């Protein structure tokens, strides 16, 4: 997935909320560092591929006990 990272000095919480509300079709995140990350959308076929890959990896982890799986969330 492609993303763009921006630094917008002095962007308030309200300013960030306004930005998100004005662009509801785009996934926008704010990192703990204050950087704004704009991610390209995942189209249905790519989402299906990612989901199936996660299933297979999860089955392998459960079967072998050789790992720990996590989703793609980041903790800032």
Automatic annotation (TrEMBL):
Pfam family for this entry, one: Uma2
Residues of the Putative restriction endonuclease domain: 16-73
Gene3D superfamilies: tt1808, chain A
Name of the protein in question: Putative restriction endonuclease domain-containing protein
Lineage of source species: Bacteria, Bacillati, Cyanobacteriota, Cyanophyceae, Oscillatoriophycideae
């Amino acid at each position: 997935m492609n993303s763009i990272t921006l630094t917008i000095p002095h962007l308030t919480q309200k300013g960030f909320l306004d930005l998100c509300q004005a662009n509801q079709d785009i996934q926008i995140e704010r990192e703990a560092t204050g950087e704004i990350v704009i991610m390209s959308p995942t189209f249905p076929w790519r989402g299906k591929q990612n989901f199936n890959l996660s299933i297979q990896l999860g089955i392998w982890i459960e079967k072998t006990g050789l790992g720990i799986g996590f989703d793609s969330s980041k903790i800032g």
